[in-house]
Amino acid sequence: MASESLEITIGQLLRETLANRSISMRKLSEQTNIDTATISRIINHKRKATLDHLEQFSSVLNLPLTKLLESAGYPVDNEKDSTSAYDETIEQLLHTSELLSANISISSVEKQLTDYEVFSQTVDGEERILHEFEEKLKSTGGIGPFIDQMKYLFNRFKTKNGNTKELAIIGSALLYFIVPIDVIPDYLFAIGFLDDAVAVQIASNAVTRNS
Question: In terms of pTM, does the model score above 0.85?
Answer without folding.
Answer: no
